[in-house]
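Hi all, long-time lurker, first post. I run a small reading group and we've been trying to get comfortable going from sequence to structure in the token notation. Rather than ask abstract questions, I figured I'd post a concrete chain and ask someone more experienced to write out its structure so we can walk through it together at our next meeting. Sequence below, copied exactly:
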Amino acid sequence: MNRETQRLAWARQALSHPDLQLERASVDAGFRSYWRTLDITPSRIVMDSPPDKEDVRPWLAMREVLQAAGVRVPQVLAEDVDAGFLVLEDLGVTTYLHDIDEANADAMFDAAIDQLLKLQATQPPADLHRFDEAMIARELRLLDEWFCGAHLGMTLDCDDMETLDAAYRHLIDAALAQPQVLMHRDFMPRNLMQADGGPAVLDFQDAAIGPIAYDAISLFKDAFLSWPQDRVDAWLRHYHARASAAGLPVPPLERFLRDADLIGVQRHIKIIGVFSRLHYRDSKPKYLADVPRFFAYLDEVLPKYPQLADLHAFIEGKVKPAMAARSEADTSA
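-- Answer (accepted) --
Happy to help. Here is the structure in token form:
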């Protein structure tokens, strides 16, 4: 039985609806897919998480942790863990990414902070992995392998590697020096949906223990939506005030803003590499179109920090010319 047939048969049995039909609701950058039921009210969402590619157990385990802490997460109505199928409540067709605009952003982000503060105050499971030196370094090296190498065809020489090693060391040390809390690792508008008691938080299966500024900068410097720097600064200050009032271990404001800058650089570098890997390894080319957004984020931050001057020079002097050459070659092809 192929996966499509298996999914439909399971959903019909789980929902006691022998004529049930499904339509694609969404697909994410991983291997999970989401399907909306037709012909039943209220509609439901079937999550398909192939066990050999993306085990659903981490998602279910973290969902229980977050729900117990008061975080608004999707409700699970039926499950078959071994097969990788879940029935979830249907939260609609639009995420924060679709709904947010200049007029409503302050209110929507304030509601998102409600959920983020609950998440960060949650006691992490004892066995939860840490966003440690090895993990941070692996993420940073995605830039070298997948963007500079696979996408741009660059061969990095010894000087380049020394530049990257020194910059990455600084970013790793800064991340490890931050107060450590439960972190979502992808807390951005595409992973939030307006809901009763919401917004509902999605895609939390990769949560870890890590730096407190990570999720806040992920929210305001999004992978798919950019805001003016003055609004980002205001939102970071607002988050800091609320986190401090809630008793979370945020450092003094100026240090927090520096921490947010530096962990933001780490995240931007990682996502440039991830989006390239999605294209070349996973045949998902659409993400590469958002890579310039992250270089714009880096342009805003790198000049502020002398310790990252060599990284800035490497990007300006080598990476961007290679990007321009690649773009010209693509246009000519």
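A couple of things your group might point at:
Residues 3-89 form a domain with the Phosphorylase Kinase; domain 1 fold (CATH 3.30.200.20).
Strands lie at 21-27, 33-38, 44-48, 76-80, 85-89, 180-183, 192-193, 200-201, 208-211.
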